[in-house]
From TrEMBL:
Coiled-coil annotated residue ranges, if any: none
Start and end residues of each stretch annotated as Disordered: 1-25
The encoding gene: lepB
A matching Pfam family: Peptidase_S26
Protein name (database record): Signal peptidase I
InterPro entries: LexA/Signal_pep-like_sf, Pept_S26A_signal_pept_1, Pept_S26A_signal_pept_1_CS, Pept_S26A_signal_pept_1_Ser-AS, Peptidase_S26
Claim: Glycosyltransferase is one of the keywords in the record: no
Enzyme class, first EC level, given as a word: hydrolase
Gene3D superfamilies cross-referenced by the UniProt entry: Umud Fragment, subunit A
Species, as recorded: Nannocystis bainbridge
Reactions listed under catalytic activity: Cleavage of hydrophobic, N-terminal signal or leader sequences from secreted and periplasmic proteins
């Protein structure tokens, strides 16, 4: 109800002149709205007669507005305003209050827009160059992935839009959520991302294989933030991911040993994302994020030194089979040691004789005498299903073409390896030894032989180490026997009565001698006998003061004596024509002279010519020496293989303060151990049994002193007896009593993923600087 004071309060004078139609419309609308609000809310406090007058004025003003009688409407609005001032001023808002309410509404609207629709951001660094540079101002669409409830990680309406690979998103930094980061989405939940330097590959959750992201190198140069200076050692690539095409940049001068080269594999857990900056080598992103935690390290319980002390193997590699995401729990660790085990089955060896002085036929016979089966190259191929008539036609055709240059081949199959002896051209012989893990079938032998022959055909001057390559299933160490100077290893002296070539072998005396030959004196002996058309089974053995490894062969033209002295590493073949040696007695007398010089020759390589000087053959003159290669005819490459085989492995699992408790955890492990039984010799209540695969031994035990449970599984190759596994378990138990051996209280652990609820929105437009105003963010 109004008071007399309110009724008598003077009003300001009405301004002269008429208002514009638009002003009258606006004022009339506001007055009607205000009058209706006051009547509804405060009608009981206004006297009936003034209240009725207000209602009548509202109706009249409505009629004037509807009839567009704006002069009358203006007068009625003045009357209504006066009525409200006289009778309802207590309910009208003061200018201050109205201003405050308007500002509050504006703030709420702005907050709503900022929280749910669009928010401006400023780029603080160059981690997203060249897409975004430091100082760029951008708009982020916060509605596209659903509405995020302010000050929470709850997202409403997420189904409206899904985050896609390749999107540029703004999110709260998982390590410190008070900071906002901007990066590009590379992996979604279930994806596995593999990074190897500047190669990024993705295996989606429903794919079996990795797919490398497509990239094209761009001719443009990298620029700094200002866009004026060229950045050295930097390349730009256009990358494509699920329909998004954008530009990334890589540094080209990074030293992998310095750790700047990014390498790793990450599997994205449910409800998370993996992100990377476009400035790949200078971006603090998922690949670099770590957190400080108390972490266990299983290699502190059993180290490589422990394995070397307690097993027969010496070279080990350490891996952690679980991926990065599985090691998010720092109170758990799982390691696997795999021994680099020497494997004869993967070994390779190649021996080459080039233009042998005893003839390639003699060398071939010595290599194949009594061993293997003579065959053809085509027969090796036909025996392999992969290369048969229905097999790999292109490979078969190539092998047959190469095999046409191999006139003879003999194959010997052993328990560990296969030996192939073959002639290449008329003047070269090779022996290839190929382990059964590499050459499982005759066809595989044929492939390896063809590889050797092809390289030989390209350059016959190559030595063996340039011709033979290892297999990619093993790591190899080379052992090369080089080609020494011929003069230091071999000597040939020939004599005749005239010093000229005799008409027949009957008039020739010839000595061929070898000192420390790389192919062994025994092999030289057998080759010399083969060159004489004989062998040890056919020749007559001669036993004298020099030993029992002397052999006599005779024919119509000459006598041939062959001796190998394993102690002095000297072998020789002495041919004496029947014109000089009418009987074997004369030959053996000459042999004794040669053998008398062997001790001095074995000590000094320069004394080889002293084996048969001209004075030992009176009446005979030395013939000119035949040309020989400066380098000795024989060399060999042996590739010793080591393989990483789980048959020679040790797995260690460790749990620090397991949530279910020590006893419960140990009981759960016992249930998984085949043939489990208690072995208190390692630790009280320790459980032992067979490895899960059945080939080996495993242990599980708890260490209450440090609140840890340990499981260890040793394969049969590394632990051939249970005693070896027991010694390893005891060592681990002892070291587990000191937490400093395996617990790091301030360890750095990867925290590579962004929780979905941390994502604020998608970066869409640049609005500053003006030179790039409203450009879309690719």
């Amino acid at each position: 109800m109004t008071t007399p004071q309110q009724a008598q309060e003077p009003r300001p004078a009405k301004p002269e002149g008429r208002r514009s139609t638009g002003s009258v419309k606006a004022a009339a609308g506001l007055l009607v709205k205000e009058a209706n609000r006051i009547l509804k809310k405060y009608g009981g406090r206004i006297a009936p007669e003034p209240a009725q007058a207000i209602r009548a004025s509202v109706d009249a003003l409505a009629r004037h507005r509807e009839a567009k009688q704006w002069h009358q409407a203006e007068d009625e609005a003045e009357r209504l305003d006066e009525l409200l001032h006289q009778h309802a001023s207590f309910a009208r808002k003061s200018p201050l209050r109205e201003t405050i309410e308007n500002v509050g509404v504006a703030v709420l609207v702005a907050l709503g827009l900022r929280s749910c629709l669009y928010e401006p951001f400023k780029i603080p660094s160059g981690s997203m160059m060249p897409t975004l540079v430091a100082g760029d101002h951008i708009f982020v669409n916060k509605f596209i992935y659903g509405i995020q409830v302010p000050f929470t990680t709850t997202v409403v309406g997420e189904r409206w839009g899904h985050i896609a690979r390749g999107d540029v998103v703004v999110f709260r930094y998982p390590i410190d959520e008070s900071e906002d980061f901007i990066k590009r989405v590379i992996g979604l939940a279930g994806d596995t991302i593999r990074v190897d330097g500047n190669k990024v590959s993705i295996r989606r959750s429903d794919d079996a294989e990795f797919e490398e992201l497509k990239r094209n190198k761009l001719p443009e140069k990298c620029r700094d933030d200002s866009g004026t200076q060229q950045v050295p050692h930097c390349e730009l690539f256009e990358e494509t991911l699920d329909g998004h095409t954008y530009v990334v940049r890589y540094k080209t001068n990074l030293d992998p040993r310095a750790g700047a080269r990014r390498v790793g594999e990450w599997t994205v857990p449910e409800g998370h994302l993996l992100v990377m900056g476009d400035n790949r080598n200078e971006s603090h992103d998922s690949l670099a994020w770590t957190r400080q935690v108390e972490a266990v390290a299983a290699d502190g319980l059993l180290s490589v030194k422990d394995l070397r002390d307690l097993t027969d193997e010496k070279l080990f590699s350490l891996t952690r089979p679980d991926d990065v995401s599985a090691r998010g729990d720092a109170s758990f660790d799982h390691i696997l040691y795999i021994a680099d085990h020497a494997s004869d089955a993967h070994g390779l060896e190649l021996e080459i004789w080039r233009q042998p002085v005893l003839g390639s036929e003699a060398v071939y016979k010595a290599l194949t005498a009594g061993e293997g089966r003579a065959t053809t190259f085509a027969a090796l191929i036909e025996g392999d299903e992969r290369l048969g008539s229905k097999g790999n036609a292109k490979l078969r055709e190539r092998l047959l073409r190469v095999g046409a240059d191999i006139p003879a081949i003999t194959l010997s199959a052993g328990e560990v390896a296969q030996d192939a002896v073959f002639r290449v051209d008329p003047d070269a012989v090779m022996r290839l030894r190929c382990g059964n893990a590499v050459c499982r079938t005759p066809g595989r032998v044929a492939e390896k032989v063809a590889e050797v022959v092809e390289r030989w055909g390209r350059d016959r001057g190559q030595d063996a180490r340039q011709i033979l390559d290892g297999d990619n299933t093993a790591r190899y160490s080379q052992h090369w026997t080089s080609r020494s100077a011929t003069a230091e290893t071999f000597l040939e002296r020939r004599y005749s009565k005239t010093g000229a070539e005799p008409a027949s072998p009957a008039g020739l005396v010839r000595l061929r001698a070898w000192r420390a030959p790389d192919e062994s004196v025994d092999f030289v002996r057998d080759t010399a006998l083969a060159a004489a058309g004989s062998s040890r089974s056919l020749a007559r053995q001669v036993v004298n003061e020099a030993g029992d490894d002397g052999w006599l062969v005779e024919d119509e033209q000459k006598f041939t004596y062959v001796r190998a002295d394993a102690k002095s590493l000297v072998a020789f073949s002495l041919e004496c024509g029947r014109q000089r040696c009418a009987s074997d007695r004369e030959l053996l007398a000459l042999v004794r002279s040669v053998e008398g010089h062997v001790p001095s020759v074995s000590k000094d390589r320069t004394r080889l010519p002293e084996l048969l000087p001209p004075g030992d053959i009176p009446g005979y003159k030395e013939m000119p020496q035949l040309p020989v290669s400066e380098r000795y005819e024989y060399d060999r490459i042996r590739l010793d293989a080591t393989v990483r085989d789980v048959a020679y492995s040790l797995g260690v699992w460790v749990w620090l303060r397991p949530t279910e408790g020590l006893a419960e955890k140990l009981a759960a492990l016992q249930a998984d151990i085949p043939n489990a039984k208690v072995d208190d010799s390692v630790a009280s209540g320790a459980i032992t049994g067979d490895a899960v695969s059945g080939n080996g031994t495993q242990y599980a035990f708890a260490v209450p002193a440090t609140e840890v449970v340990i499981r260890m599984q040793c394969s049969v190759g590394l632990c051939p007896t249970p005693e070896v596994a027991r010694d390893l378990a005891k060592r681990a138990y002892q070291k587990a009593h000191d937490a400093s051996n395996f617990v790091d209280p301030a360890a750095e652990r990867p925290q590579p993923y962004v929780p979905r609820g941390n994502v604020k929105g998608r970066a869409e437009r640049i609005w500053l600087p003006m030179s790039r105003f409203w450009l879309p963010i690719r």
